[in-house]
Write a structure and sequence with these properties.
The structure is a single chain. The chain is built from 5 helices and no strands. Helix 1 runs antiparallel to helix 2 and helix 4 runs antiparallel to helix 5. The longest helix has 35 residues. It is mostly helical. Helix content is 75%, strand content 0%. About 13% of the residues have low confidence. It binds protoporphyrin IX containing FE (HEM). The site of protoporphyrin IX containing FE has 7 residues, from helix 4.
């Protein structure tokens, strides 16, 4: 039951997204748009509100513990963390490899360096994936 909360909050944010531009109701505490300029501004701010709302499912400040937990409960966030981890590790370590290769090391050293970076990357990916998964499990208990 609790597990579905993150998904529910995400779908709420998506519903908010689909209503943008049609009304000003998403702008809590503001007047609805009256003319074209208001409407455009309301639509844009509403779009930003809804987009940021996806990262802020429990309201309040994005790094409030309630938000960290709510994002942790969401499978979509958990999968995204793991995909971003893989992309960032590949990018960072491949960039580092390019920098080190500019020093023109001997071919066997290049090969050893590549293997070390691959092992570091795979190791950190496994560790990070485990951490993201455990985080998801623990958040789902609360
Ligand atoms: C959204 C985030 C990021 C973007 C858009 C980004 C973009 C880029 C781009 C465009 C380059 C090529 C620069 C060039 O060739 O002149 C680059 C290189 C590099 N990036 Fe990133 N990067 C990001 C995050 C990171 C992170 C988090 C790390 C490390 C943990 C990192 C490590 C590196 C390294 C080591 C290079 C190679 C630098 C070089 O060849 O001189 N990047 N990045």
């Amino acid at each position: 039951m609790r597990k579905d909360r993150g998904a529910l909050l995400e779908s709420k944010a998506l519903v908010q997204l689909t209503t943008i531009g049609r009304s000003g109701r998403h702008l809590v505490g503001r007047e609805p748009p009256k003319d074209g300029r208001d409407y455009a501004a309301g639509g844009f701010e509403g779009l930003i509100d809804a987009l940021l709302g996806i990262f802020n499912p429990a309201g309040g400040h994005p790094i409030d513990w309630a938000n960290v937990v709510a994002r942790g409960q969401s499978m979509a966030f958990t999968v995204t963390y793991i995909l971003l981890l893989g992309a960032a590790l590949f990018h960072g370590l491949y960039g580092l490899r390019n920098i080190l290769f500019e020093l023109d090391p001997a071919p066997p050293l290049k090969k050893a360096l590549s293997w070390v970076l691959i092992l570091v990357g795979v190791g950190l990916f496994i560790f990070g994936t485990w951490a993201a998964w455990v985080g998801h499990q623990v958040a789902s208990l609360t």
